[in-house]
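Reopening: ABC transporter ATP-binding protein still failing for me.
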Amino acid sequence: MLELDAISAGYGRARILHDLSLQVAPGEILCLLGRNGAGKTTTMKAVMGLLPLMAGAVRVDGQVISTLPAHRVAECGIGYIPQGRRLFTELTVAQNLEIGLMARGTDRRVRDGVLELFPRLRERLDQRAQTLSGGEQQMLATARALCIEPRFLLLDEPTEGLQPSMIEAIREVVLVMRDRGVGILLVEQRVEAVLSVADRVCFIENGRNLETLEAGALRQDPAIVARYLGV
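Support: Ran it again with your exact input. Result attached.
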């Protein structure tokens, strides 16, 4: 279980998250929904140790990880695909994947398994990341995170700016990882995309929990989403 226990975090003295709590179970997709500036990306960074907590704790199976440096968080099996991808653009596809393997000491067997999910990347192993299309870069960012064999996977706006075929490819991989028992925390602005994959949805506003609901309830009553997001 990935657990955020009443965490507060921010930038400098500006507090963005206020006692935010949520849990992600293995084999579950929990989506964060909220307006721009609600604190979704800040939540991801706080989990990954990229922002120090002002209060609260992040735990994996009861073990506190929020006191660890960011590279140690990855060693605990937390994969992160940030908004904007953050690839090593001058390096090749193969070299970017190698960095993913190094993060947790996994081997080429893991890489081969990841490439089964992304056959297009196998054809481009010697190609520099900056020459890939936007969709291929998103595939590479996802594949690199999967190279650590994550127990939990954090995805921040993975479909932003992608064409429909690429969106579907990413969606299929997310569902495969859920079926393999990976817990997934997903930030996504496209409501229809959220409802197509989520098991539960957590609404946040101004860095605070509003409500967490089963996705099935939202599919049956779209007015709930409109109430929280104004869409």
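The chain has a mean pLDDT of 92. If you still see a failure, please send the error message rather than a screenshot.
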